[in-house]
Amino acid sequence: MKIGELAHRSGLTPSRIRFYERIGLLKAVDRKANGYRSYPAEAVTILGLIALAQGAGFSLDEIRGLLPADLEHWEHDALVGALTRKVADIETLQARLTRSKAHLLQVIDEIEARPDDIDCATNARRVLTRLLGEDAEMPVASLRAKQF
Amino acid sequence: MKIGELAHRSGLTPSRIRFYERIGLLKAVDRKANGYRSYPAEAVTILGLIALAQGAGFSLDEIRGLLPADLEHWEHDALVGALTRKVADIETLQARLTRSKAHLLQVIDEIEARPDDIDCATNARRVLTRLLGEDAEMPVASLRAKQF
DNA sequence: CCTGACATTCAAGTTAACTTTAAGGTCAAG
DNA sequence: CTTGACCTTAAAGTTAACTTGAATGTCAGG
User: Along the 148 residues of chain A, how does pLDDT read in single tens digits?
Assistant: First the structure.
């Protein structure tokens, strides 16, 4: 299988597949006489697995550390450990998101539920003062992504 | 107030404050005769607000579009709209994280609960086949962050 | 008057995960 | 024998949000 077909079958681009090879995520593959890469059927599975792991929140570096040379021989303990840590990471992030959401809803409420006897400027000051009194959180990259 | 003191009081670095000015997030500030920036007390509030908004998931671009020239005169509708959209974004991300977590836990279980009459390689094939049959998710940047 | 802690600018570097560009080889079909 | 769809490489560009570096200026204290 040439790289174009592998790209088609895995849903990745050829440049991405070559990139993965360059950074050592994919081991160097056989070449035909003309220099073209020639992939075994298993490559589709490997690429699918990489995409899957990425979707679950693993970086390419992490994936490289976990992906075995042979798809049938995994380092169970390292793998289960990494999966377990990722679950914990997700839980941490979920807790943050829950707090962020509650904060945002509170601000929306404070803006919309302003009593008639308080003018906008005063209400703005009030909200600002309360907001800046609480401890701040660090940015969460994924919330700024155009698409997720 | 010079930039060093503002940095100290806001918890940001001077370079970051200058950077915010350069990209138009902070309007150009008064200068002393020697060229040093001279900030009003309000600047601490503005920077605190920017950091807060970042923590809630807003990009600097988004923040620039929402921050008013005068902290007491906000564009209520645009602001409430943006806050509401951000809440929706958070909910979308939370749903994804919940699915990811469930997937990870299922994989952990399939690895650990392998029946004694099935060998590792067979179990690996079984898990892989099931995994790659499901529809994949796109990467979530925040799960790969070193710190969050 | 000198030293050290500040301040200034502009340009370039950082990170991750790719894509794009440029310049060129291969090959089947018409 | 030419066209177009592939393939190759290496290097540079992309994005966001900063930081770092280089070269230089300012100023208060001893």
Answer: 999 999 999 999 999 999 999 999 999 999 999 999 999 999 999 999 999 999 999 999 999 999 999 999 999 999 999 999 999 999 999 999 999 999 999 999 999 988 889 999 999 999 999 999 877 787 887 777 655 4
What DSSP line would sit under B88-146, residue for residue? HHHHHHHHHHHHHHHHHHHHHHHHHT--TTS-HHHHHHHHHHHHHHSPP----GGGT-S
ipTM: 0.88
Residue of A nearest to B102 (CA): A87
Euclidean distance between CA atoms B3 and B8, whole angstroms = 9
Residues 39-98 of A with CB under 8 A from B: 45, 48-49, 51-52, 54-59, 62, 71-74, 76, 79-80, 83-84, 86-87, 89-94, 96-98
Q: Tell me if B80 and A108 make a contact (CB, 8 A cut-off).
A: yes
